[in-house]
Amino acid sequence: MNRDVERILYSEKQIAEAVKSLGERITRDYAGKIPVLLGILKGSSIFHADLMRAIDLPCEIDFLSAKSYGMGAQSSGKLRILKEPDIDIRNRDVIIVEDILDTAVTLSALLHTLSLKEPASLKTAVFLDKNIGIEKPVKADYKCFDAENEFLVGYGLDYAEKYRNLPYIGILKREIYS
Ligand code: IMP
Ligand code: MG
Question: Which residues are catalytic?
Fold first, then answer.
């Protein structure tokens, strides 16, 4: 285990099982369709790569880059779009693929922006849903896990751009970010 990690919240094996069953659910729900899996860079990159291979349907992938966190551990509440998707999503079945829902400010802003492009449908798949029980502006349509209100790293999630390559979800030691 990485020495900056307090403990492992979800192991590689638990992650693989959760992503596989989410892929099977999406496969059933989108039968006969060609969904666009829109990964939100950079945090969802690993989840996006695993999820697309767990979906047994023709699908297209694209990326959107938006920033809300800066380099710290607190959400700024602001969203800046840095890269728009290349695919024209008008009349397409779009699934936004996100790493983690915290306040859900990012996802609600993304849903608003993308709905203006008039997709046939717009759903969200998140790997983790943090701060369960807190009032959020939007809920995820699909999710793999709920999580505690701790700062999490690994499986794409970073702290100041580090730890994305850890193959598990770990709770970062408080002394690293405080
Ligand atoms: P929200 O807008 O508050 O829902 O924040 C969502 C974004 O904040 C995610 O896409 C992540 O990039 C980042 N984020 C929130 N919580 C964590 C965490 O525990 N670890 C790493 N990044 C996080
Ligand atoms: Mg991030």
Answer: 102
Domains delineated in the chain:
5-177 (3.40.50.2020)
Per-residue pLDDT of the chain (178 residues; tens, 9 = 90+): 999 999 999 999 999 999 999 999 999 999 999 999 999 999 999 999 999 999 999 999 999 998 765 445 555 556 788 999 999 999 999 999 999 999 898 899 999 999 999 999 999 999 999 988 888 889 999 999 999 899 999 999 999 999 999 999 999 999 999 8
How many C-beta neighbours within 10 Å does residue 12 have? 14
- Indicate which atom in ligand 1 lies nearest the CA of residue 40: 10
Statement: the pTM of the whole predicted model exceeds 0.90: yes
Q: Among the bound ligands, name the one nearest to the CA of residue 74.
A: 1
- Whole-angstrom distance, CA of residue 108 vs CA of residue 113: 9
Cβ atoms of residues 43 and 156 within 8 Å: yes
Which residue spans within the chain are E strands per DSSP?
Answer: 5-10, 36-41, 60-67, 80-83, 93-101, 121-130, 142-147, 152-153, 169-172
CA of 42 to the centre of ligand 2 (A): 7
Task: In whole angstroms, give the CA distance from residue 133 to residue 159.
Answer: 24
- For residue 159, which phi and psi values (nearest 5 degrees)? -125, 120
